[in-house]
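The protein record quoted for completeness.
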Amino acid sequence: MPAHSLLRMIALAGWIAAAPAVAAPQWVPTWVASQQPVWRPDELPLPTGLPARLEDRTVRQVARVSIGGSRLRVVLSNQYGRVPLTVEAVRLARHAGGGRIDRASNHAVTFAGQPAVSIPPGATATSDPVPLSSPLPALAEVAVSLHLPGPMRIDTFHWDGRQTAYIADGHHVADTALPRAEPFQARLLLSAIEVEARQPAPVVVALGDSITEGNGATPDANRRWPDVLAARLAGDGIAVLNAGISGGQLLRAGMGEAGRARFERDVLDVPGVQAVIVALGINDIGWPGSTFLPTTRLPAAADLIAGYQSLIDRAHRRGVRVIGATITPFAGALAVEGSPIHGYASPQKDALRQQVNHWVRTSGAFDAVADFDTALRDPAHPDALHPAFDSGDHLHPGDRGYAAMAGAIDPATLLPARQP
C-alpha cells in the first residue's frame, strides 16, 4: 500500500476516534394519564363516567403533547385489569377540534408490526414508532382513535381527563369525524404518548391530586397548572407530565393508589425524569371525617411529614430533584348546593394544613418549594381561596388560579444546576 494511502487511513481513523459520539435517540413521554382502578358504586359516591357499552365501538381521545418530534409511540394500559383487553385497530392524527381529526395526518399505529394488540392483565403495550409526515411541534394536540371489538370489561382508567373524549358505534378509526359520537370525560386505555428525542430531553413530573389534574379548569382548554408550566418550558425542550389523580392522597389509597405507592411507576421509572413537583396532602386532610371516610381519624402532621420525607429520600437516591408544594387553602370546600360531599373542611383540618405547610417551607428537606398556598389564599381569610382564583367549589382553583400556581414555580429550581 502506498505510504500516502496508509497515512490517509491513519488520519481518518484518528478523526473518527476523536469525533464526538452522536447521542442515540431516546424515547421520553411527552404526555401521560396516570392510571387508577375503576371503583364500584358502593366504594365511592361518585360516578365513573365510563361509557355503558364498549362492544364494537370506536373511542377517540385528545391529548396535548408538551414537547414534539418526528416519531411518536402510543402506550396502552391494562394496569389493574383482571382479563386481557383486545384493541383491534389504533390510529394517531393531528386534532382538528371537537371530535374531528386532520385526515391527511392520520397514521396507522401497530404493535410488533400488527394492527391489533392484546394487553394482559397488569401490563402495558407500547406501539411501534409512528413516523409522522411532518414533525409535531411542542404543545400540539393529537387524537388517538381505538376500535374496541369487545365485549370489554374495563378495570383500569383515568377518571377526570378535563378533555372531552368521543365514542361511536362501529369501526371508524380512520374517519375524519365519528358518526353520532357521544362525549365523555374519562380516559380509556391510553396512558402515555412518547416522543423520540434526538437530544437529551429533561422531564418534570407533577405528582398530585385533582388540583394537579385540573378540576375546575375550563375543559378542552389546557389551562391546568402543569399545562401552563409546560407552555413556559416548551421552548427549552423540557417535557412536563401531569401525573395528577383526582382524589389522590399521599399516605392512603383513595381514587387511586397512594402517592407513595405509585411514586416508582409514575415518577422514578419515567425515562428522562429530572424533577418531581409533589402536590399531595390536601385529601389526606380533607377526606377523614367527610362523606368519603366518615369514621377515619385525621393523620398527624408527623405522618404526612414522614410520607414526604420518604418520597424525597427515594427520589434523591435516583438523582431526581423534589420540589415541595404547600397545601392550598380550602375553607368551605365542597359545601355548595347539590354537593354529595360533606365535612371536607374544618378549623382543625386547617390547623393541620398550616403545620404541614410550615414544615414544607422551613425544613429544607425539599430541593425547592412551590408556595401554592401563598399564591392562592385570600389575604383577608388565609384559610380560604381568593375569590378571583376560586372555581366556585372553594377547593379547586379556576383558570386564573391555575395560572397563579404555575407562576409560583421558579423554572430555575426544576433542573440540576449546569456545571461550567
Summary: The longest helix spans residues 301-317. The first strand starts at residue 26 and ends at 32. The chain is about 20% helix and 25% strand. The mean pLDDT is 92.
